[in-house]
Amino acid sequence: MPTGRLRGYGLALTAAALWATIGLFYKGLEGYGLSRLTIVFYRAAVAAVILFPVLTIRRRAWPAIARRDWPLFIAFGIFGVAAFYVVYIYAIALTGVGVAAVLMYTAPAWVTLLSIPLFQERLTPHKVVAVVLAIVGCALVGRVYNLDAVRLNYLGVLAGLGAGLTYGFYTLFSKAAQRRYDAWVTLAYALALGTVFMLPFQSFADLRRAVAQPGSLFWLVLLGLGPTLGAGLAFNGALRLIPASNVSIVATLEPAIATLLGWAVLGERLEPLQLLGTGFILAAVVMLHREAALWQP
């Protein structure tokens, strides 16, 4: 496989690994009395506040975008960042972490289907099987087979499916924006606009409490640097090197890695069917690797 494609899969895997640590940050930050909406607001805001000065220093000029591209970035901020963060938080609250993650990772199906007309990507039998394996794997990792732990309701299911669709939008908007801009500029404007659109959902008291506590401020900065900024740049970099549908499928390793981290760091239970689900997701990634090698001239 050419070096560029291999690097693309490595970047997608890096993004999944960094995103998998989000649960650890959430657990720590909720201990400071912060709401989840406040946490995700600062997650985007901190990363944007760091990105713009860095880009300005590197380029010796403000990282501007063309007027014609503002509608794309506004849609990215609304649907790919703000809506995604908000509906996913509500999906977790209504259905639980496991089911919400499974519903969110219907995103590869959305991305694969929408990438055909938008980016002229091929819908191959290998890719269809990989999508199915990834979704089934996420379901097993999320322990949806444990009916006692699953809380289903119509609003929760709609929120979870909405998270999958908006996560798909995040991928597609990133791919589209990077036709003209690099990964840094794309992520900076997406996060900044997402922060603006999340602001009406915030409580001023919660926003003030977050920055008034040195401990919470420290963890918010780390959250902005690692799972948000680092993962976002790796994900966007992967989108420049391999098809959007492939990146989305590789990213389904996130809940599997998160489950392993929960077992290793927090002492959470790891069941055999969860390991089987992890194997399914890895099999999907291997299928994509092999298909890319077969199609490469």
Quick description:
With 297 residues, this protein is mostly helical. It contains 14 helices and no strands.
Q: Overview of this structure, please?
A:
The protein is mostly helical and 297 residues long. The chain has one domain. It has helices spanning 3-19, 22-30, 36-59, 70-95, 97-104, 107-119, 125-141, 154-177, 183-198, 204-212, 214-239, 244-250, 253-265, 272-295. The N and C termini lie close together (10 Å).
Topology of this protein?
Layout (H helix, E strand, L loop, with lengths): L2 H17 L2 H9 L5 H24 L10 H26 L1 H8 L2 H13 L5 H17 L12 H24 L5 H16 L5 H9 L1 H26 L4 H7 L2 H13 L6 H24 L2
Helix pairs in contact: 1-11, 1-12, 1-13, 2-11, 3-4, 3-9, 3-11, 4-5, 4-8, 4-9, 5-7, 5-8, 6-8, 6-12, 7-12, 7-13, 7-14, 9-11, 13-14
Overall shape: globular
Integer average pLDDT: 82
Distance between the termini: 10 Å
Helix content: over 70%
Count of alpha/pi helices: 14
Keywords summarizing the entry:
disordered C terminus, 0% strand, 297 residues, mainly alpha
